[in-house]
Design brief:
Elements: H1 7-14, H2 25-33, H3 53-57, H4 63-67, H5 84-92, H6 124-134
């Protein structure tokens, strides 16, 4: 199952982005006190689904692919269905969703020389090189996600 991030992960960005926002008061309080935030789940995968963020991040799948443009959301909401068909489609053709590892958390990233967003067909050529470099070959076997 996907883990809820520690407050330190949130503060990696929010030390600089909206550091005084009233909406982030609970995050700042949690960080200062070293106590966990009581999160409200936006994505609730079934218990039989295994998901590892690191497996996706380490091969260049950007946060925006699954979570949408959260930097523009007043209230975080579900954007992608995260159902089996949606996940399998990406596993079968991950190329449009790949980016350099150092750009995984950059929600505004666009490939150099491109004006189209990730996921469009024009991204495929540079992302194909990333697929080779990162050895991206996601499994479509049932046991990859069902454990």
């Amino acid at each position: 199952m996907a883990a809820i991030p520690h407050t330190e992960v949130c503060m990696n960005c929010h030390k600089a982005i909206l550091p005084n926002s009233a909406k982030l008061a609970e995050i700042r309080k949690s960080y200062a006190q070293g106590s966990p935030v009581l999160w409200i789940k936006v994505h609730d995968l079934p218990d039989y689904v295994y998901f590892d963020h690191s497996a996706h991040v380490s091969v260049g799948v950007g946060c925006i692919v699954c979570h949408g443009p959260i930097q523009q959301m007043e209230v975080v909401r579900t954007v992608s269905p995260l159902n089996m068909a949606w996940c399998v489609a990406c596993h079968r053709d991950p190329v449009p969703y790949l980016r350099p590892r150092d750009q995984v958390t950059n929600m505004d990233w666009v490939p150099p020389g491109q004006s189209s967003p990730p996921g469009s067909s024009t991204v495929a050529l540079s992302a194909e090189q990333l697929r080779e470099n990162y050895r991206v070959n996601p499994s479509t076997d049932c046991v990859a996600c069902h454990r």
